[in-house]
C-alpha cells in the first residue's frame, strides 16, 4: 500500500499541499486543530480561512512578481488559485476574493477527494516517523512551537502581524467618498471602481496624524520585541517614522480624482477595498493597527466619510512565528535533523497568502515524489517559485533572516538590461518571460510526477 502523507495545518499552504499530493495518488491526512482549538484570528473551522486581507495582491503576470506567482500556480493546477478565480471580487488589477465562500469551496473540494481525510485535534509534538509536512502558519500553537524550538535548538523567531479593520458599507458617507481604482486601473467598470476613496485636506491629515500618534496602543508582553515585517507595518508605526510617511504610502493621493470636487486635489486619500461579494463590507487598505479598540473607533472616525462608520471588525495584532529556514531546511524543504518532516507556508519565512500557498504546492509535490521513490528537484531560481524556495533554503542571510514577499530582487539578473527606474518595465518583462519559459519546461520535465 502507498504510504500516507500527514499535513499539520489546514491553512492555505496545507490545503494546497494536500491537493497536490492527492493528485499524485498519495493518501493524505490533514491534521487541523480548529475548531476544537481556536486562535484569536480565526472565526471558523474551514480550511484555507483568510484571516487578514481578502486580497492575493496583483494579478499582473508580466510586470509583477506576485502576479507571476499566480500564473505559475495556475499552470500547476493549483487549488488555491482556481478557487480564488471562482470567487473573485472587483479589485482593480488585484485578485481579491469573497473570503467565506472561498474557504468553504476549498474545504468541500478537499473533503470530496477520495484520498484526503481531515482529522481535527491539536498535534503537540514532532512525529518520529512517517511522512509529514508542518504548515501551521504564523499562529503555530504554543505546544507545537515549543517542540519545534526544542528540536532545532534555535531561539524562536517572531514578528508582529497586524490586522486591518473592516467597515460596513452602508455606514460610509458617499456624499464625501467616491468609487475609483487608482489611475482607473482595470478593464471593466467594476474593476475601475473597485476602491472606495476618502479624501483629506492638509489640516485633516495633520489632525489625523496627531490622533494616531497619541492613541493608546497594545502593550507587548515581557520579553517580546516589535520586530515588524515591513510589508505589514501597523499604521501608527509608519506614522512614527515621519509625518509624511503615510501620505507617501497607503494614504497617497496620486492617480485619484475626487468625483465630488474634481478641481480640488486631496492632500491624502484613505482607500477601502470591497471585502465580500455582496459589497456590504470594506476593509481599510494598509490600516493594520495595534491601537486599542476604543482608540481605533475614535481615530478612524476622523477620516472624512467615516464619521458615522460601523465596524464589522476592528484591527488587531498577533505574534507571527517562523523558523530560520536557511539554517534548518534543505532544498527539499526537509528539516535537516528530521528529514521525514517538511515545512511549508508562512512558518518557513515567506510572507503573504500567495507565497504561502506556493510553498505548500512545492512541499506537497516534493513529499509525494519522495513517497513514490524519487526526489523532485526544486524549480529553477529564475521562476517565482524557484526564487522563493532558493531564498528560504539558503539564499537569504541566516543571521538577519526575515519574512519575505516574492519580488524581482530574488531573481537572478537578466544580462544586458538597463538598471534603474527607466529600465524597469523592460527588465520586469524579461524576468517574467524567462520565468514562464523555465516554469513550463520544469512542469513538462516532471509531468510524470502528477497523476
TrEMBL record:
Keyword Lipid metabolism: no
Molecular-function annotations in GO: flavin adenine dinucleotide binding; tRNA (uracil(54)-C5)-methyltransferase activity, 5,10-methylenetetrahydrofolate-dependent
Annotated TM spans: none
Residues given in the record as FAD binding sites: 9-14
Entry annotated with the keyword Iron: no
Signal peptide region: none
Subcellular localization: Cytoplasm
Cofactor(s) for this UniProt protein: FAD
HAMAP family: TrmFO
Reported function: Catalyzes the folate-dependent formation of 5-methyl-uridine at position 54 (M-5-U54) in all tRNAs. NAD-binding protein involved in the addition of a carboxymethylaminomethyl (cmnm) group at the wobble position (U34) of certain tRNAs, forming tRNA-cmnm(5)s(2)U34.
NCBIfam families listed in its UniProt record: gid_trmFO, PRK05335.1
Protein name: Methylenetetrahydrofolate--tRNA-(uracil-5-)-methyltransferase TrmFO
